[in-house]
Write a structure and sequence with these properties.
The chain is mainly α. It contains twelve helices and four strands, in the order H-H-H-H-E-H-E-H-H-H-H-H-E-H-E-H. The strands form two sheets. The protein has a two-stranded antiparallel ribbon. A two-stranded antiparallel sheet has the order 2-3. Helix 1 packs across helix 9, helix 4 runs antiparallel to helix 12 and helix 7 crosses helix 9.
Length: 314
């Protein structure tokens, strides 16, 4: 049964990623919006839905600190694991609007989050409102001023649909990614417990990667179909959305307290490292590209992070 759940989860993730990509491309054509904007809004929102659901439920159940670990772990996995895998499969050519607009917003959001927690270890309701308002301003800016940040290699393959089928694909893709990630995580956890792996280790490894599975699925489908703008935009947008919307909304429901000091003294610093290191990697060793070399650096860093974290928990 566990193996069937894992296989079923992967199948739903592949289908969901494909459906979500179809709706994103169609929306891009219909609304005449750059694909990276669609990636940073529609696709990233849909792939971040599991984080939002988990964080809100945790907050309502009185475990608001889970929301913080959920977002930090997911943001680290998005860049250290998902982006690493994506660029190791296919090089992404980056244009200057990426580091002028999109990367600074992700970096600034990460620094604001750190500032809120470094001050008193809590995100108050008014701080959550500030985060959510930052997201609103960013989205308005994207829709009005953003230009393409990644070269579209195959624009002639773009396919548009009427608004009805587009929305159906969007809904089916979102549900497919959510259900697929649920099946995959539950199957993996059950399998790990069956082989005697501790729940703590499962949480650090399988769950942290599992919450980023929707991003990986959507991004890999986008890469295979040469929609690299959506792939890169999805990952950047997901990290921004996780901080500004997931934590913003959760904090507005109930203040988020970092009960475990390791979240501030260790985890969030690694999140800042991954957000920061993307910038120099765009310029070296190959200028304006993210390729397999950069992917190896990101993946190596992620493995070091997991190793240190596991050691600290033992």
């Amino acid at each position: 049964m566990n193996y069937l759940m894992i296989l079923g989860g992967f199948a739903l993730l592949i289908l969901g990623g494909n459906w979500l990509l179809k709706s994103a491309v169609s929306l891009s054509l219909k609304l005449q919006i750059p694909k990276i904007v669609i990636g940073m809004t529609v696709v990233s929102f849909a792939t971040s839905a599991p984080e939002l659901i988990v964080s809100l439920k945790a907050a309502l159940d009185g475990h608001a600190d889970i929301a913080l670990g959920n977002v930090i772990g997911s943001n680290i996995a998005n860049l250290g694991f998902v982006l690493a895998i994506v660029v190791m499969v296919s090089t992404i050519q980056v244009e200057k609007s990426f580091y002028i607009n999109d990367w600074p917003v992700m970096m600034f959001s990460s620094l604001v989050l750190y500032g809120f927690f470094a001050f008193d270890g809590v995100i108050q309701r008014w701080e959550g409102l500030i985060l959510f308002l930052m997201l609103t301003v960013f989205l308005i800016y994207l829709l009005k001023f953003q230009k393409a940040a990644v070269v579209d290699e195959m624009p002639e393959d773009d396919e548009g649909f009427p608004i009805g089928p587009t929305l159906v694909y969007l809904l089916m893709g979102s549900v497919g990614l959510w259900a697929g990630s649920e099946l995959l995580i539950e199957g993996a956890v059950n399998l790990a417990e069956q082989f005697g792996v501790t729940k703590r280790l499962i949480g650090v490894t399988i769950i942290s990667i599992g919450t980023s599975i929707p991003e990986l699925a959507a991004s890999m489908v986008a890469i295979i179909k040469k929609e690299k703008a959506i792939s890169l935009g999805n990952l950047l947008g997901s990290n921004v959305f996780n901080i500004l919307a997931v934590l913003g909304i959760t904090a507005m429901v109930t203040p988020i307290t970092a009960k475990d000091k390791g979240l501030i003294e260790f985890d969030i610093l690694w999140m800042l490292y991954f957000a920061l290191v993307i910038f120099p990697l765009v310029f070296a060793p190959a200028k304006m590209k993210l390729s397999w070399r950069e992917g190896l650096i990101l993946l190596g860093s992620y493995i070091i992070f997991i190793s240190l974290l596991v050691d600290s928990l033992q």
